[in-house]
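Per your request, structure below.
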């Protein structure tokens, strides 16, 4: 069926992004919001808004019954979950479809399968995608974990079978670490995801985090090239680029082809991301996980390919075939995204909600700012601190970094501390310019380079 109206089951900048894409497609939008978000930009931009509960996420954005009831009351055709919250909740996808509505994303069964990291590893192996050496399945006991570690060796990573976002992860340098961290990781995973299941993976030293954007309509599947996501703090991405600038052409081809093979294996529908670790020394890559939703960093892919990923998600969910074939997907130039958070880098990245007294957004060729902000808006203290994403494109990475420095200098957000100074320092750093970084670079850099220049504290208070 053709989608004529959408309920946006999210908040912040991604809700704004979805509403803008829907407007271009001529689709009516309904924005749900908590009591704390009544004044957010997405509410102002949507055709209709519905209050679904108190500020606590469990009573609003994570409340499946409240969201589905709002969708039915609004008479929409479909629900877009954005990222985070219920976006990778298979029960939510099932509930939306059980209500006679369209879930803009994969089917619940696909989310359930790929959301379980152990099951996803099995799917990847079946599709011929290399996986990191580790446990073949979930580990029920520390005895099983010891046996796996004896085969793979240390260091080894303890990971949650469900969920993501860096939670439920510990690195064990030796057997004593393993025995200490295993129950801790299980407890954290249980608290965060309702599932304390764990598995083990060998730690790939000096790994790069590379991911491939995929699109599918259940029958046809394409990749939209890869993104470099190695600049991370506490396993949370801070800065992303497309393409991965140090990836050899032959490796890029194999990497992207493997992502499409995995999508084909599960008859994937919608937008998704297949994540990998890449060993620059051996030129080998290993599957990590699949994110069955739109990613925070999707704009860098849009900037180098010209493909509107959110619009394509909506079209496919409405029953249309992919509007592009693999031959249509080409990459031009280089793009970088900086996540702008309401945090104070000089005070251990403490979240800093508050009122925006002044906002100046840089403009010009190759500059894009996806945001939830406007002057006078008060950021509530209940949610993630991401307030915007500055994305810059240029013909080369060198030119992109120069344009990024100019854009960051022109981005003014007054009234709250932000991570703009962090990104300005990164954009001017010689190691970043050379691409000489891995997934652990940023935390080392924060303790040395950034701390020396600003007096900032790297660790969260």
């Amino acid at each position: 069926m053709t989608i004529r109206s959408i309920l946006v089951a999210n908040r912040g900048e991604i809700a704004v992004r979805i509403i803008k894409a829907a407007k271009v497609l001529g689709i009516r939008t309904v924005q749900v919001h908590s009591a704390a978000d009544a004044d957010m930009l997405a509410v102002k931009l949507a055709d209709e808004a519905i209050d679904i509960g108190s500020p606590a996420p469990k009573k609003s954005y994570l409340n499946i019954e409240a969201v589905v009831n709002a969708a039915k009351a609004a008479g929409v055709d479909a629900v877009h979950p954005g990222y985070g919250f219920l976006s990778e909740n298979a029960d939510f996808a099932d509930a939306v479809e059980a209500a006679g509505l369209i879930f803009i994303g994969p089917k619940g069964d696909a989310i359930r399968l790929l959301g379980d990291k152990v099951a996803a590893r099995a799917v990847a192996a079946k599709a011929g995608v290399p996986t990191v050496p580790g446990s073949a399945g979930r580990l029920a006991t520390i005895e099983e974990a010891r046996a796996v570690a004896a085969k793979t060796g240390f260091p080894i990573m303890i990971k949650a079978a469900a969920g993501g976002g860096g939670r439920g992860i510990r690195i064990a340098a030796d057997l004593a670490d393993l025995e200490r961290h295993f129950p801790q990781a299980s407890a954290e995973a249980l608290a965060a995801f309702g599932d304390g299941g764990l598995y083990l993976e060998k730690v790939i030293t000096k790994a790069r985090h590379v991911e491939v954007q995929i699109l599918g309509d259940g029958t046809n599947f394409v990749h939209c090239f890869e993104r470099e996501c190695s600049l991370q703090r506490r396993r949370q991405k801070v800065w992303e680029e497309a393409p991965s600038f140090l990836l050899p052409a032959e490796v890029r081809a194999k990497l992207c082809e493997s992502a499409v093979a995995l999508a084909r294996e599960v008859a994937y529908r919608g937008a998704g991301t297949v994540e990998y670790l890449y060993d620059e020394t051996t030129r080998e890559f290993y599957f990590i996980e699949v994110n069955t939703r739109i990613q925070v960093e999707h704009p860098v892919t849009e900037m180098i390919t010209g493909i509107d990923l959110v619009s394509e998600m909506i079209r496919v969910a409405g029953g249309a075939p992919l509007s592009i074939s693999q031959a249509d997907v080409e990459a031009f130039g280089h793009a970088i995204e900086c996540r702008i958070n309401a945090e104070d880098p000089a005070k251990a990245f403490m979240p800093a909600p508050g009122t925006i007294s002044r906002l100046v957004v840089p403009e010009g060729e190759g500059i894009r700012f996806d945001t939830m902000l406007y002057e006078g808006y008060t950021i509530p203290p209940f949610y993630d601190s991401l307030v915007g994403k500055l994305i810059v494109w240029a013909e080369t990475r060198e030119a992109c970094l120069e344009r990024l420095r100019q854009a960051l200098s022109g981005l003014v957000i007054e009234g709250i501390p932000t991570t703009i100074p962090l990104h300005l320092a990164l954009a001017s750093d010689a190691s970043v310019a050379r691409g000489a970084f891995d997934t652990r670079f940023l935390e080392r850099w924060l303790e040395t380079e950034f701390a020396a220049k600003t007096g900032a504290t790297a660790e969260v208070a």
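Residues 212 and 225 are 6 Å apart (CA to CA).

Regards,
D.
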